[in-house]
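Components:
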Amino acid sequence: MEQAKVPVTLITGYLGAGKTTLLNRILTEQHGKKYAVIVNEFGEEGIDNDLVVDADEEIFEMNNGCICCTVRGDLIRIISTLMKRADDFDGMIIETTGLADPAPVVQTFFVDEDVQAKVALDAVVTVVDACHFLDAVDEEHELAEQVAFADIILLNKTDLVDADKLNAVKAKISSLNRMAKVIETVKSQVPIADVLDRGAFDLSRVLEFEPGLLDEEDDHEHDENIISISLKTDNPIEPEKFSNWIRGFITDRGVDVLRTKGILNLSGQDNRYVFQGVHMVMDSAWGAPWGGDARSSRLVFIGRNLDEAELRTAFDNCTVAA
Amino acid sequence: MDDILGLSRAKPDGSGQRIKELVRKRFGLDEAATLMVSELRCHEDGCPDVETVIAVMGDAQTSLTWKIAKPMAQVDAGDIAALPAAAPA
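Structure:
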């Protein structure tokens, strides 16, 4: 029987957003579980845990300069060491620095067979400071990327802003990432079940986790560098057309595409086809049968400098009717 | 069911562990040394379609990396024996 993988939760967020507060809240909850905690810097707020490992944010380029081939060398070493004492804990939590690029951290979990066999990235949780987000997001690209990579966004410090500002922050977050579940919080107080054991990278759970993926399309104003694009069609997808298009697109634009998720109604197939990607690393699986459900196909791209009209046309061209 | 779109990652087949054991033997590395083996399909200009990257993960100054221009499953003892002791960065 396949051994259960140790779940890893990645907590990102800009300086002062409330990451350590969230971490301590998770650690002090009476859940009966033990966590290994990996931090990149010890802040003013201490961490209430027996097993805390200091990481040094070492970027490791497998292929000179290509972001798709970049991982965190320090994490590979730490995870390999921790897994030799895996009986001592139930999961791992990584708290990045406020300035960390999430892409190398996420890709660390998809490059090495041993890492993939022993641990599984459960979700990227990004803590956003509702007070300062709008002032900082256009200037600090790390902040936009942390939101873009998130599966769960804790919109924190909501008690410090009025309704208009809160709505503006939510609109901006939605433009950057339509896939993430947004939870409004004060002092990072959130039910632990909303941030742990989410299975956000588990293809068998895509349907239960994708609020943006299941929404109807809407008309955002997209003028940002990073944008989130949602596409939908009720016409069945022709597998060969779609395969040729998506593989070519990711080959050409994988550096700019941060995350991708899709649920497809493939022509002649009884089951849903689900897939997701981080840059050029893609994975797919067959999902539940459509049964009597209304069939449709949905795609979400989060990335830089994406042309929504071009993507929509290309997607529509993959249908049987095209 | 088959992956008819070709988007699934290759499932681990033990090649990574096999290559790591060959590298440990070739360079006399013990279990304390962290190795990473990955198959890259990089599409940057000048890169081969597929290559196996092998790294001994020391700190930033001491990490060693080798690349072999073939898939992990095809990397054999001869490839590892041919690796130079001082790996190119």
